[in-house]
Amino acid sequence: MMIQHIAPKHLDNPYDGTAKPSPESVALHFDGKRLLCRTADGALAFPTVAELGAGEYTYLFRLDDAAYFLRRDARELAAEGYRYEDITLLFRTARPQERAFAAVTAYHLASWYAEAQYCGRCGTKTVHDGQERMMKCPKCAHMIFPKIMPSVIVAVPEGDRLLLTKYANRPGASRFALVAGFTEIGETAEETVAREVMEEVGLKAKNIRYYKSQPWGISAGGLLLGYWCEVDGADEIRLDHVELAEGAWVTRDELRRVYEDRGVSLTNEMIVEFIKGNAPE
């Protein structure tokens, strides 16, 4: 189950310029990729506005009946019983899942707010629009909206084998990754699939089929687009050693023995679908 699958819970994400924080509102504060939170007994919890005290708060979204606000403060804050945790590690294991999803979505917005403080056209300090989630320049009227960066996740099966990779220069990276990459200017997602498969592992792709998408706030704007494709021609891997440390064809039987279903990600779901024999024809 991917991280955004939180039903019957619901994350209501439209901006509400009239929302004001109450003492009971959830207050999220980030220091880089660290989130102020509590994980006692495996249960993820966040401080309230009352616990963080007075400061600048920006409305984020609602998770069911709870209003979430971003505490916009460049310094570390203190709240009894809470500490900063690395969100890149936290979100994969934290429960309940709806709070983990709220945390990574908030990180996406926190990163954007940090980057949009000044106008990229004239350098003037920006202000928040009152009607929508947009930063605007009071001098030249330049408008800055949240950044969304599409990228592809590509599963390449070949009979009872699946192409798996391991990222280079990422400490602790798993060898159970799929081919992936960001969509470039002037490129369709399908063209991204073909280009990334060729660039990363030296294979030609054919029969490219869309699977499903996933918001991926941990990359501060990612929107993952999942695809399946087949190899067109020879299946010899020619690895891009700048991007990847490993690339290999792994059999379904081996994956059944060693792969750990961690949920959360689109990559995980696609690998599990292959293990179950559900890869689309």
Describe what this molecule looks like in 3D.
The protein has helices at 49-52, 87-93, 97-115, 189-201, 252-258, 266-275, and strands at 11-12, 26-28, 30-31, 34-37, 57-63, 66-71, 83-86, 127-128, 135-136, 143-144, 149-155, 157-158, 161-167, 179-182, 205-216, 222-231, 244-251. The strands form five sheets. The protein has a four-stranded mixed beta sheet, covered by helices on one side. A four-stranded mixed beta sheet has the order 14-11-16-15. It is globular. Helix 2 (87-93) runs antiparallel to helix 3. The chain contains six helices and 17 strands. By secondary structure, the protein is an alpha+beta fold. A hairpin with a 5-residue loop joins strand 15 (205-216) and strand 16 (222-231).
> How many whole angstroms does the radius of gyration measure?
21 Å
Structural class: alpha+beta
Helix coverage percent of residues? 10-25%
Work out the helix count.
6
Q: Which strand order does the major sheet show? A: 1-5-6-2
Short description:
This protein is an alpha+beta fold. The chain contains 6 helices and 17 strands. Helix content is 21%, strand content 30%.
Question: What does the secondary structure layout of this molecule look like, with pairings?
Answer:
Elements: E1 11-12, E2 26-28, E3 30-31, E4 34-37, H1 49-52, E5 57-63, E6 66-71, E7 83-86, H2 87-93, H3 97-115, E8 127-128, E9 135-136, E10 143-144, E11 149-155, E12 157-158, E13 161-167, E14 179-182, H4 189-201, E15 205-216, E16 222-231, E17 244-251, H5 252-258, H6 266-275
Helix pairs in contact: 2-3
